[in-house]
């Protein structure tokens, strides 16, 4: 029996791409809650065999994004309002930790990245370009997660950020929120630049609290 390492890596990479594509489509609302997902339709749409699609759907079921129903097949579960509320409750507890650790571990290059993100955010806030502001908001937090130098923390928070992206896009688009969020990011950056972990944690917790409160107004709307 021979082992083809190149094929194994290729198969794994394909499964990963299929999984992330389907998950992204669900999180972006391209599939509605309750909508059936068929292996044949997805495989034809993505131009792949049914095997990686089947494996991706199994993984998505473990994440709670789809449900397998006997005699009906796989249907989209999606992200509920309660899921979003839970995500922000958890974020409010641990997001500050990333900033605290980043304040003592961040590199000069990462500080430069944060400064550039802030500059671009101010530019696109004036342009009222919500798509770019959403991307920059994600980048700002991702740099801090990376700077915390903790793989488990980065993985958890990156997933939370991704899972709540649809609500985040709507939330940041509410009048005045983009400018307020930028000011909060600038304060967090200043605390990190000053290597002040306590202040960085406090300001980040306050930022997440403000995001949560604004998001709750959107969810109630």
Automatic annotation (TrEMBL):
InterPro entries: GntR_C, TF_FadR/GntR_C, Tscrpt_reg_HTH_GntR, WH-like_DNA-bd_sf, WH_DNA-bd_sf
Domain of life: Bacteria
Keywords per UniProt: DNA-binding, Transcription, Transcription regulation
Record flagged with keyword Transport: no
SMART domains registered for this protein in UniProt: FCD, HTH_GNTR
Coiled coil residues, start to end: none
Gene3D superfamilies per record: GntR ligand-binding domain-like, Winged helix-like DNA-binding domain superfamily/Winged helix DNA-binding domain
Xref: Pfam families: FCD, GntR
Keyword check for Transcription: yes
MF-aspect GO terms: DNA binding; DNA-binding transcription factor activity
Annotated HTH gntR-type domain residues: 12-79
PANTHER family reported in the protein's UniProt record: GLUCONATE OPERON TRANSCRIPTIONAL REPRESSOR, TRANSCRIPTIONAL REGULATOR, GNTR FAMILY
Identification of the protein by name: FCD domain-containing protein
């Amino acid at each position: 029996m021979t082992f083809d390492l190149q094929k194994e890596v290729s198969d794994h990479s394909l499964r990963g791409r299929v999984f992330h594509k389907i998950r992204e489509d669900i999180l972006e609302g391209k599939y509605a809650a309750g909508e059936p997902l068929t292996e044949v339709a997805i495989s034809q749409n993505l131009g792949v065999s049914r095997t990686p699609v089947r494996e991706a759907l199994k993984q998505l079921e473990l994440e709670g994004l789809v449900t397998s129903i006997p005699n009906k097949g796989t249907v989209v579960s999606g992200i509920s309002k309660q899921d979003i509320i839970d995500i922000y409750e958890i974020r409010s507890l641990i997001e500050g930790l990333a900033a605290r650790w980043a304040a003592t571990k961040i590199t000069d290059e990462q500080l430069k990245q944060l400064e550039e993100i802030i500059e671009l955010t101010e530019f696109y806030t004036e342009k009222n370009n919500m798509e770019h502001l959403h991307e920059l908001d994600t980048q700002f937090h991702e740099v801090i997660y990376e700077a915390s130098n903790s793989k488990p923390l980065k993985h958890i928070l990156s997933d939370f950020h991704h899972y709540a992206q649809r609500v985040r896009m709507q939330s940041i688009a509410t009048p005045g929120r983009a400018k307020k969020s930028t000011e909060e990011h600038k304060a967090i950056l200043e605390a990190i630049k000053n290597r002040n972990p306590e202040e960085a944690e406090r300001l980040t917790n306050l930022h997440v609290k403000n995001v949560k409160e604004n998001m709750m107004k959107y969810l109630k709307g």
